[in-house]
Design a protein that fits this description.
With 119 residues, this protein is α/β, with parallel strands linked by helices. Helix content is 32%, strand content 13%. It is built from 3 helices and 6 strands, in the order βαβββββαα. The strands form 3 sheets. The protein has a two-stranded parallel ribbon. The chain is globular, with a radius of gyration of 14 Å.
Length: 119
């Protein structure tokens, strides 16, 4: 699922370019699906209609995952850095692990605790 605070007109061309035979976005949610909170856009994962134990949100803005902080994987903002490999690294390690667990919470709690302590 792709859930972005961007407008559809901007997000769709990027999402279309990211799709491959192995990676599809069968559900796309945009800014209009976000909750406005103090001038920011919050992504409410309940809108997905899925078990939150099976959902992780990868985002560079902590405001975006305010409602479900335990589901979050914080990442550094990307601004035209062609050398940026953070998302592929997450996919090869953490996201692969999350895809095979009963609940994301033990894994994400440990990951975010480790990140907070700088280990």
């Amino acid at each position: 699922v792709a859930f972005t605070a961007s407008q559809k007109v901007y997000a769709d061309p990027l999402l279309n370019s990211l799709e491959t035979a192995q990676v599809k976005f069968p559900l796309r949610l945009y800014r209009e699906h976000c909750t406005s909170l103090g001038g920011s856009y919050v992504k409410d994962l309940h809108l997905l209609g899925r078990d939150l134990n099976k959902i992780a949100i990868v985002d560079n803005s902590p405001v975006c995952y305010t409602f479900q902080q335990r589901n979050a994987i914080p990442i550094v903002s990307w601004f035209s850095d062609r050398g940026d490999r953070e998302l592929p690294q997450l996919a090869d390690s953490l996201l692969r692990t999350l895809s095979s667990v009963e609940s994301v919470y033990p894994v994400l709690d440990a990951f975010n605790s480790m990140m907070a302590t700088g280990l």
